[in-house]
Task: structure prediction
Amino acid sequence: DGADLLTSSGLVGSHAYSLLAALTVQTAKGTQRLVKLRNPWGESEWKGDWSDDSSLWNEKLKKEVNFTNANDGTFFMAYEDFLKYFSDIQICRVHDDYEYSSHRFTADPKHATYLRFTIAKDGHYYITINQKSRRHHGPDYEYSDVYLIVGKELANGEFEYVQGIQKADREVWTDGHLKPGSYIAYIKVPWQDGQSHDVVISTYGFSQTSFETVPKAVVGDFLEKVYMNKGETNPGLKSYEAEGEPNAFRCSEVTDDGFGYFFFWNKSDSALSTEIFFKIMSGIKLRKPMTGRSFKITVPPKQKAIVLTKVNPYLEVKQVYSEVASFERNSNQLKSLAKTNGQKKQRKHQKTGEMVDIWCHVLQHSDGVYFYYENNTKDLTLDEEVKFKLQGLKIEEDPFNTSVKFILPPGGTKEIKLKKTLNEFSIGFSTAYLIKN
Result:
């Protein structure tokens, strides 16, 4: 069995060895890849091919690899045998001026744990979550997924996104430059057996740290806040200029942290209403309270909003979506936009042929089409009828009609609002008018 195989080979089961070197040599049979290992006990060496007593060695090869035949725990073995007998490789990063700090806690499979730690010195730090090695469970044991998100505490209960990672491994770590201050680590381990187990969080860097558990009520919507901060600095931020609002922005991202997000930043004076429809939604799902294959959200003026998605690490992630956005503007806002950005048409006196100070401004915006008339004369009246050919639009004040007739006295104004009823719309119109003295 496996135990007898290990005993006969000279290796010790469930035991760590140091990997000293990997090299390639030329033998009579061709190229051979070797590894050089050491048993930290200083004894119990490998007995198979390329061991100290192996007949495969010759004097030339021994000299080439600096071979020593001694019972010192150091030995060579073929790379193929190394893959057969060893299941895990760990790479240790050692810095002479770094300090190590750790904290053991119990991770609930259904609820995240929030830990606060303080960085005293500016510099580079590793942050690691350790699960118990599979050596304690058996060779068929599979490590559970670990979600680790780190945010720096800011004023007013906000957080700056720092680092994040999602992975199923014994050691899950991230590293980066940390500035002095207080940090929150979000840790969630959805254990495969559904039970709670202990894990260890550690930091390795320019100063020691201490950890304390923080109730969720203290950090509030931590994930939403850190990813909102991440969204603010996303280079993919795109404006809603095509929808008539250059002062509102959005972006989306699927991260390596196990989460994705849709971020909306409304710097305008109008409320943003937007709906996202997923055409392809592979490997992700909306995070509660959102569900299904679409979501709708309203972002008030001068506000930000975010919708999170959860990533399935075992599926190929692909998202394709469409967006329908509109801005809820009042009459004053529409009037200002129409006069600034709209098409401007001046009326002409039918008798004299002269252009008069009566204007029509036409603005197409995200929620429809807006007509604004202004009569700046002191003694002329406009008598006008507008006939529409509409698709996906309706007259807001009279939805069942397709024309508007009105009289505009000196100094008067008039607005016509066409509201969209479909995502795509078209408009055609003709006007007939008289200028009366």
Notes: Residues 222-232 form the longest helix (11 residues). The CA atoms of residues 238 and 253 lie 12 Å apart. DSSP finds six helices and 28 strands in the chain.
